[in-house]
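so my prof wants the structure for this chain in the tokens format not the other one, which i didnt know existed until like an hour ago. anyway here's the sequence
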Amino acid sequence: MTPWPEQIAAAFRAACRDELDAPKPGNVHVFAAGHGMTAVDFARSADAAAGPLSHSGMRVGTRIASAVEATFAAVGANTNLGILLLCAPLAAAADPPPHDLRAALDAVLAALDIDDANLAFRAIARAAPAGLGRAERHDVFLPATVTLKQAMVEAGDRDRIAHQYASGFDDIFALGEPVLTAALARTPHPRWATLAVYLGFLAEFPDSHIVRKHGAAVADETRRTAATFLRRMPSVEPDGLLADLLAWDAALKHGGINPGTSADLTVATLFAHRLRNILPPSANSG
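here's what i got, hopefully its the right format
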């Protein structure tokens, strides 16, 4: 039988590849590169990060820091910081196999400490995501004075990834997974189910990556356009949307607009869903 950490790593790689396979407007995918990156860069990043992220017995901060370093060694750039910040707690919650994934995740988040914060801060500073600046409190360029969860709770009102630590990943479990389950029931093609999740996040709230780089007005305009595509999906053959999706994709990329947070949340949703499918049946109760 395949060792459990390798199963977690395989679930992570598969989630990343499924996300890349969907034509996500504004984000990198197999149909079009963007923002100086290609789908190959992201696939190589997933392969590099999967092992460190899934290493048995490691704390969340160690998983994040090790996976960021492995990514830079593989591609020399920040391709997946948000993905790793979201998926590291999920990987830790699945190790060892829990009876209830969400309850195990709550325990992981509650156990985060200052060491986790220091490791995550260094990883964030190393990755230097777009829009990262200095902060009056809990600056990632300075030693941590609170736990990782406390730091994320304070940032949660301006960053949707940080909000997951504060809410117990509620967007993943209460929004992403139900949209994914419903979409998979409508279509046999994971590509279009993944797109539904991405558009579901993008239509629900302004993407915090866009807000940081371009402001609230641009983020809200992007949200409204995503909502129109999401409404069209159930009544139009998916392939019939492709030309319009790719036209919007090109326009967003021309403007340097990247809904990166929505893409990161999509990977985390796919990862959580795959973990549920390989965990013991009782784990699906969370």
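also thought this was worth mentioning. Residues 175 and 201 are 8 Å apart (CA to CA).
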